[in-house]
């Protein structure tokens, strides 16, 4: 028992001792003299504390007394949190601590804390510019100083940095003194690492009279930083020039002037302007001793009475010789270098004084802001007074509202150099009021009366200096980037502001990133745009899994690697692109696929994004891995960086803010294009596609939002735009869709569908159809030529050339002579060469005005005209007269035949007489036709061409010039036989070449007819004239007939008159051709070898446009007559140009029967209800009920007292009106038939539309018809032909032969499209039938509106 108790006591004592002897933790490093550079980036780990606890418990670290560093308690990393500056302190010492943890549950009082000092030694970096001491620098130097003279030796430059290149100085010339650095040079006296002294030494001879002040900049550099200061050298004058007389020595004085009258004052100044000597005067010649000259003042006075008659010179001129001498050592000098003579003339009169004058009226000078006080402005400014004595004394002062500048000297006698200095305060460029000063310098005489004065203006421009740091709007910034982002991904933009200007301000700010992970990001040093950088090592990359799935069409979708490089130039280019999926970021970077597609589209080839896809498929083995990314959300979610902005292009002052970049997770499903290739066609110049072009892609991720963008050349992107949400491609409003400017008619590019992480490249192939929209242009508008009367047939006269900017057939030109040739000349239709076609006769016609037309082969064909004036040179009327002494001279026919022209020209007895016949204005103009017929679409715009008239004059030269005028525009309203009068101003205009165009909007004259009276009048007296008439019908698009011919337009133009004649014979109507253009087949393709001829027919009796169905019936009736011509002219079909609606008429008898049944039914029901209620008829209505009804009526009346839309004001009281409105809207289509399809529902203000005696009721003017969305499918019958044509509203359909063809037609609006637009013939869905444009009401579209008609 005793031993047991003893053992227990020993154990307890051992435990007690062990618990009371816990040893403190220990640092395992030396913490003194740790070296750091002062440019160490904030956020860098500069040291790591290490230590341990003897009991092997966990230890934590800390710091005490440091605002530059922070200590991570776990890792012991010491991080720099504040920038270092060695110039402020060269070492930093603070305490670091290490703590053990006795209690595993947390800190306790039993924990041991050991504190130990740590010292960091800060090493210098070259981050401070040199500094000039004791500025400003200035010195005086005599003009005769020897070259090599030291004029200033107090230049002192210091640098706060101890490292860097040695200090150096450089002379920088200024605009005011460009040769200063050649006159002086800088000589280094002493050079130490941080201090430099230098002197300014004369390098060339000086001349006070050439320049009195030199300014230049002294630039100090330490290899990185530069500083400048101004040096001013003032040149002192040396006595080496004789006196110079200042003013005129001629005067006029009255003859009776008393003795001692001042005649003139001789003034001379020392030629040396710096320190002028005193001048004394004397007379060397004084005729008759008339005058006395004061030696000091130079005053010339009368010495005795003057007698003009006693002078030898009758003009009264007295000539004096005056000498001016400098006073040297109080003695006038006779040396030629110190004296001068001048001749003075006195005729007799008085003297004028001069005010002080500056050497210039205006001065401009620039200086840096923060210029020290006392710094002189770099001005070459002087002031002088031509007077002498007290008249040359004047004062200088400034009118300076800013009070910044001062002038010296204050008082001047005669002449002085003027200095303007900075006097008060420092200049600040950032203050807009101190960027420019306008100072007025005034020189005013002090001892004269009146006090003459003059002024000069000094404009001082303050230049900016780098005295402000860049500043950020926030103290810290944050941004987010997806972990799937690729190099170049845009993250954010952080910019700073600097109130300085130029490179010292915003333009010179450069940005950089530092800190852990900064190498993963890239910042544009100029714009501040932060993007994801390139991966620097494989450890920074991660691979995404491959994604494989099949779309609905069975195309395999494969993720392609961004690192795969494909040699695309050696691969075959396909026109059917496959779908490609690529990892992308939000940065506007193009993959190789998109770049290749864009280049192919720009070059006009058929290459698409299939090139890149094909290359990717070929290199599938090399790119089986997914694209590598630099970020990994699972490894690092946040990066804490330092963002630095430095001005002066990265060499100036710096500001730093913290930047937090968070990494976000991403989805992993790519979008899928619904179609690998989208096709569309569009006419050049169009702003809309034939049918909407929408690119669609779908994404399996519901969280993804797909956006679309066009990847192509800049030309593609300037033409097309895409809705980034819907994917609908549209043509930009200001785009120039011109085949002439494009390199190909096939525009192939890629639309990128982007879900934020993946993209699908969908190919787009747009065919731009060339539209004939360029008029042929001749090189000249007027040509002239001369041809001999006896020229042979076929002789070339002139070659006319025209150009057309279109392409293909639209650019092929054919030439023809419209008028003026009188069959004497012809033209080669391909070359434009005009030649003689038959024998010319000067007596019959000696001048021709040929109107030559160049027409392209486009549809519609466009033409350009030029005038060729041909003068026929007379070859006749040459007489030979023989002189003879024989009185009975007779020459027989045999003798006459024996004479030759050569013999007669040599015979001196024969005189040659040439007779020239002069033209006389004896012919009147003549029109080609007495009456012209034409038509114009009611939708035609201003200046639309209608027709052309032509008149010729048989006279020559100016006698053949004529002008055209419209003297009357008689309007015949629809159905009227009498004119309502001439419209003033005329709705039409005529050019001087006879072209008639629309001068207003023709919609208001729809279905009317105009009869224009045209006059062609000579410009020369007696101004004869000719008259013609032009009948113009304003037609609607539905009134045109389309003739489909299997021949190209150029051949149809040649046989146009024959076709018109046969149609006129068959229909007995006047046929007026409106247009000929290329044919479009059923799928919207242009047939270049076919064409469509559009015409309207006019009833010769009523002069009204005949209905289309009537013309077609006439043609059908005469099919047997026309069938031979069909084959000869290659006529395939004759159909309406536009389809109208056909609906069953409403049976009034059935309607009446239904109404009678409804009335009887209502009557029976009413009778039953009345019988059931008879027993209650005498009961009174409760008072409470009447009160409620009264309140309801009052509330309704109050509700009516509003400013609501009048259409809805009485809806609560008159619901039946809404029913009536609805019935009106829904019943309106029933009134439209095939014969009364309206051209426009509101061509006139009365809203009347007359067709075959019917009118369309339109109760509410705000309800307008829209284009229907129906399509027409028609088949052929009759002659056994087959086929179908799908057309949009406003288009045309043909089926089989003429006889027996039946068509079921659907509702259209022919006015929604211009007649001359090819879009009227292609498939397109138009808006719905009716809309209410005046309010929010819109009639619903019924199921019956959309229908497909088939030929039975």
TrEMBL record:
The domain of life for this entry's organism is Eukaryota
| Pfam families, sorted | Cadherin
Query: Spans of biased composition, class Polar residues?
Result: 1261-1273
Where does it live in the cell?
A: Membrane
- Cited PANTHER family: CADHERIN RELATED FAMILY MEMBER 1, CADHERIN-23
Mind telling me which InterPro entries this protein's record contains?
Answer: Cadherin, Cadherin-like_dom, Cadherin-like_sf, Cadherin_CS
As for membrane topology, the entry says:
Single-pass membrane protein
> Which key words are in the record?
Calcium, Cell adhesion, Membrane, Receptor, Repeat, Signal, Transmembrane, Transmembrane helix
Q: What is this protein called?
A: Cadherin-related family member 1
The UniProt entry, under SMART domains, shows:
CA (SM00112)
According to the UniProt entry, which residue ranges have a biased composition of type Gly residues? Answer: 1275-1284
- Source organism of this protein record: Drosophila arizonae (Fruit fly)
Q: Does the keyword Membrane apply?
A: yes
Region listing for Disordered, in residue ranges: 1261-1292
Give yes or no: UniProt keyword Transmembrane: yes
Task: Give the stretches traversing the membrane.
Answer: 1148-1174
Task: Report domain Cadherin positions.
Answer: 28-132, 133-245, 245-358, 359-472, 473-673, 674-778, 779-927, 928-1051
| Extent of the signal sequence | 1-19
């Amino acid at each position: 028992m005793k031993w047991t108790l003893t053992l227990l006591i020993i154990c307890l004592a051992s435990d007690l001792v062990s618990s009371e002897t816990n040893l403190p933790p220990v640092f395992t490093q030396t913490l003194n003299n740790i070296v750091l550079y002062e440019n160490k980036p904030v956020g860098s780990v500069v040291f790591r504390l290490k230590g341990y606890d003897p009991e092997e418990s966990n230890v934590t670290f800390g710091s005490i007394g440091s605002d530059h560093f922070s200590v991570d308690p776990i890792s012991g990393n010491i991080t720099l949190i504040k920038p270092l500056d060695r110039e402020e302190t060269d070492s930093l010492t603070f305490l670091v601590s290490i703590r053990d943890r006795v209690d595993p549950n947390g800190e306790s009082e039993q924990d041991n804390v050991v504190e130990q000092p740590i010292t960091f030694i800060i090493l210098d970096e070259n981050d401070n510019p040199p500094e000039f001491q004791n500025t400003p620098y200035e010195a005086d130097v005599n003009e005769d100083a020897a070259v090599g003279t030291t004029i200033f030796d107090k230049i002192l430059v210091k640098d706060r940095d101890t490292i860097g290149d040695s200090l150096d100085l450089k002379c920088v010339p200024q605009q005011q003194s460009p040769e200063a650095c050649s006159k002086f040079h800088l000589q280094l006296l002493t050079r130490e690492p941080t201090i430099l002294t230098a002197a300014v030494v004369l390098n060339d001879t000086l001349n006070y009279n050439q320049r009195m002040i030199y300014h230049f900049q002294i630039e100090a550099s330490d290899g990185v930083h530069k500083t400048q200061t101004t040096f001013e050298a003032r040149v002192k004058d040396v006595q080496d020039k004789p006196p110079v007389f200042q003013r005129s020595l001629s005067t006029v004085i009255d003859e009776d002037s008393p003795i001692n009258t001042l005649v003139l004052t001789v003034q001379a100044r020392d030629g040396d302007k710096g320190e002028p000597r005193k001048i004394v005067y004397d007379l060397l010649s004084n005729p008759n001793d008339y005058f006395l000259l004061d030696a000091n003042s130079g005053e010339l006075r009368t010495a005795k009475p003057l007698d003009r008659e006693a002078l030898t010179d009758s003009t009264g001129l007295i000539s004096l010789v005056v000498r001016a001498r400098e006073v040297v050592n109080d003695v006038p000098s006779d040396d030629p270098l110190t004296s001068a003579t001048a001749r003075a003339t006195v005729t007799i009169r008085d003297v004028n004084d001069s005010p002080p004058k500056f050497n210039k009226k205006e001065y401009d000078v620039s200086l840096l802001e923060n210029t020290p006080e006392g710094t002189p402005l770099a001005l070459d400014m002087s002031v002088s007074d031509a007077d002498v004595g007290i008249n040359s004394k004047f004062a200088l002062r400034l009118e300076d509202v800013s009070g910044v500048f001062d002038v010296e000297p204050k008082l001047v006698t005669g002449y002085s150099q003027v200095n303007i200095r900075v006097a008060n305060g420092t200049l600040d460029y950032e203050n807009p009021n101190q960027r420019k000063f306008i100072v007025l310098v005034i020189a005013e005489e002090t001892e004269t009366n009146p006090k003459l004065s003059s002024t000069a203006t000094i404009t001082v421009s303050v230049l900016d200096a780098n005295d402000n740091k860049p500043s950020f709007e926030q103290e810290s910034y944050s941004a987010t980037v997806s972990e799937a982002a690729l190099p170049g991904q845009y993250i954010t933009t952080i910019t700073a502001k600097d109130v300085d200007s130029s490179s010292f301000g915003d333009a010179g700010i450069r940005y950089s990133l530092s800190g852990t992970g900064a190498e993963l990001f890239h910042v544009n040093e100029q714009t501040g745009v932060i993007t994801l950088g390139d991966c620097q090592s494989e450890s920074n990359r991660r691979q995404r899994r491959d994604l494989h799935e099949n779309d609905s069409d069975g195309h395999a979708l494969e993720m392609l690697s961004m690192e795969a490089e494909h040699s695309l130039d050696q691969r075959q280019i396909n026109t059917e692109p496959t779908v490609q999926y690529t990892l992308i970021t939000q940065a506007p970077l193009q993959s190789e696929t998109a770049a290749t597609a864009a280049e192919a589209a720009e070059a006009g080839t058929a290459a698409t994004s299939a090139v890149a896809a094909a290359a990717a498929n070929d290199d599938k083995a090399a790119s089986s891995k997914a694209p590598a990314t630099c970020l990994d959300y699972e490894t690092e979610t946040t990066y804490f960086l330092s963002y630095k902005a430095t001005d002066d292009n990265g060499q100036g002052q710096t500001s730093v803010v913290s930047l937090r970049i968070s990494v976000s997770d991403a989805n992993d499903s790519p979008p899928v294009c619904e179609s690998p290739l989208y096709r569309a066609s569009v006419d050049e110049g169009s702003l809309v596609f034939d049918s909407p072009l929408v690119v669609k892609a779908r994404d399996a991720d519901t969280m993804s939002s797909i956006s679309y963008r066009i990847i192509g050349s800049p030309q593609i992107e300037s033409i097309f735009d895409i809705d980034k949400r819907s994917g609908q491609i549209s043509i930009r409003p200001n785009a120039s869709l011109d085949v002439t400017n494009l390199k190909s008619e096939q525009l192939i590019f890629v639309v990128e569908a982007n879900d934020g992480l993946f993209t699908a490249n969908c190919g787009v192939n747009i065919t731009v159809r060339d539209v004939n929209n360029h008029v042929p242009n001749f090189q000249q508008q007027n040509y002239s030529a001369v041809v001999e009367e006896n020229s042979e047939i076929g002789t070339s006269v002139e070659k006319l050339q025209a150009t057309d900017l279109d392409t293909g057939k639209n650019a092929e030109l054919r030439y023809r002579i419209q008028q003026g040739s009188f069959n004497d000349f012809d033209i080669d239709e391909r070359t434009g060469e005009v030649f003689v076609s038959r024998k010319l006769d000067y007596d019959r016609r000696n001048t021709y005005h040929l109107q030559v037309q160049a027409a392209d082969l486009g549809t519609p064909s466009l033409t350009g005209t030029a005038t060729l004036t041909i003068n026929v040179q007379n070859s006749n009327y040459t007489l030979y007269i023989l002189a003879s002494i024989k009185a009975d001279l007779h020459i027989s026919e045999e003798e006459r035949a024996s004479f030759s022209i050569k013999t007669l020209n040599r015979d001196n007895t024969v005189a040659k007489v040439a007779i020239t016949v002069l033209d006389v204005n004896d012919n009147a103009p003549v029109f080609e036709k007495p009456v012209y017929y034409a038509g114009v679409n009611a939708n035609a715009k201003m200046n639309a061409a209608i027709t052309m008239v032509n008149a010729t004059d048989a006279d020559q030269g100016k006698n053949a010039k004529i002008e055209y005028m419209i003297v009357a525009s008689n309007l015949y309203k629809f159905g009227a036989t009498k004119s309502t009068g001439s419209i003033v101003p005329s709705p039409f205009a005529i050019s001087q070449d006879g072209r008639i165009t629309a001068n207003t909007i023709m919609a208001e004259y729809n279905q009317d007819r105009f009869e224009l009276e045209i006059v062609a009048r000579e410009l020369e007296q007696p101004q004869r004239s000719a008259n013609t008439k032009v009948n113009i019908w304003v037609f609607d698009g539905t009134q045109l007939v389309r003739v489909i011919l299997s021949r190209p337009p150029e051949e149809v133009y040649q046989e146009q008159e024959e076709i018109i004649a046969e149609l006129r014979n068959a229909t007995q109507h006047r046929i007026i051709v409106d247009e000929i253009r290329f044919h479009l087949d059923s799928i919207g393709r242009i047939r270049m070898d076919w064409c469509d001829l559009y015409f309207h027919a006019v009833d010769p009796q009523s002069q009204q446009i005949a209905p289309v169905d009537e013309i077609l019936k006439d043609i059908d009736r005469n099919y047997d007559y026309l069938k031979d011509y069909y084959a000869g002219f290659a006529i395939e079909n004759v159909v309406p140009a536009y389809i109208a609606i056909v609906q069953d008429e409403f049976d009034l008898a059935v309607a009446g029967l239904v109404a009678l049944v409804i009335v009887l039914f209502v009557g029976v029901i009413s009778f039953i209800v009345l019988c059931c209620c008879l027993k209650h008829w005498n009961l009174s209505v409760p008072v409470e009920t009447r009160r409620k009804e009264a309140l309801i009526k009052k509330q309704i009346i109050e509700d009516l007292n509003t400013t609501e839309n009048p259409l809805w004001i009485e809806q609560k009281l008159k619901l039946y009106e809404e029913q009536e409105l609805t019935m009106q809207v829904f019943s309106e289509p029933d009134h439209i038939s095939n014969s009364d399809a309206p051209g426009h529902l509101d061509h006139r203000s009365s809203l009347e539309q007359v067709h075959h005696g019917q009118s369309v009721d339109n109760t509410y003017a705000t309800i307008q018809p829209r284009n229907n969305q129906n399509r027409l499918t028609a088949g052929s019958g009759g002659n056994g032909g087959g086929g179908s044509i799908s057309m949009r509203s406003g288009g045309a359909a043909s089926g089989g032969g003429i006889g027996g063809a039946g068509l079921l037609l659907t509702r259209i609006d022919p006015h929604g499209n211009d007649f001359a637009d090819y879009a009227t013939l292609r498939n397109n869905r138009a808006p719905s039938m009716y809309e209410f444009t005046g309010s929010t009401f819109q009639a619903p579209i019924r199921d019956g509106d959309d229908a497909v008609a088939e030929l039975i």
